[in-house]
Amino acid sequence: MNPPVWLFDLDNTLHNADAGVFLLINHAMTDYLAGRLNLSRDDASAIREDYWHRYGATLAGLQIHHPEVDIVEFLVKSHPMSQILEKLMPIERTQTLLGRLKGCKAVFSNGPSFYVQAVTEHLQIRDHFDLLAGTDDFGFLYKPNRQAYLAVCQRLEKTPQNCIMVDDNADNLYTAKQLGMQTVWFSHKAHDLPFVDCAAHDMAVLEMWAAQQGWLEAV
Questions:
Q1: Which parts of 116-181 are beta strand (E)?
Q2: Among residues 19, 1, 2, 10, which one has the least CA distance to residue 129?
Q3: Percent of the chain at pLDDT above 90?
C-alpha cells in the first residue's frame, strides 16, 4: 500500500478534547436534553451517558428512542463553538507530522461537520486534509458503524484496504480492521491488540512507525 490514505479521528487524536472540550459538550448536551425532554439535569445526564455507552454516541440513542428530537438542532446546541475554540489544546508535533506523512489525509469524526471544520481551522491544520467528514456528511451514521467507514471511503474514492485509521477508541479500530484497514491506536493507554497495527502513545511514536513503513517525507 503506497501511498496510504490516513483517516484521522478528531477528538483526543488531533487535539486534547479531555482538556475541557468534552466537558463543555457534555454540559451543553445535558442542558439541551433536559429542556427538550422535560427532564431534570441528573436524568438528562444519565440518558446522555447511557446512550453513549450503549450505542457509541448520544446521537444514536436519540435517533432510536426520541425521533421527535431534531438531530441538527441537537448537534448545534450541544457544540457551543465560541466556548469550544477557547478551550482547544493542540497535541504536540501534530502540525509537523501531518506535513510529512505521505498520502491522502482525511478527518473522520463522529462530531458534526461544522465542528470538524471550525476545530481544524482554529488548530491551523485544515489545509493538510483532502476531506473533513463529520456525522452529517455520511447520513448521521457514526463510528463504529461499518457503513460510516464505507461512506467515507466512497467519498475519497478509495477502498478500505488502502486506508489507515488513527483513532483513540479501540472499538472504532476493531471495525476498521474488519474492513481491511490498517489501524493506529492513538492514546496514552494504547497497548498491543490483535487488531491494532501500531499502539501510539504520542505523535513521536506514530512518526517513528510511519517512517519504518516508508510513509514519511524526508525533512
A1: 131-133, 163-167
A2: 10
A3: 94
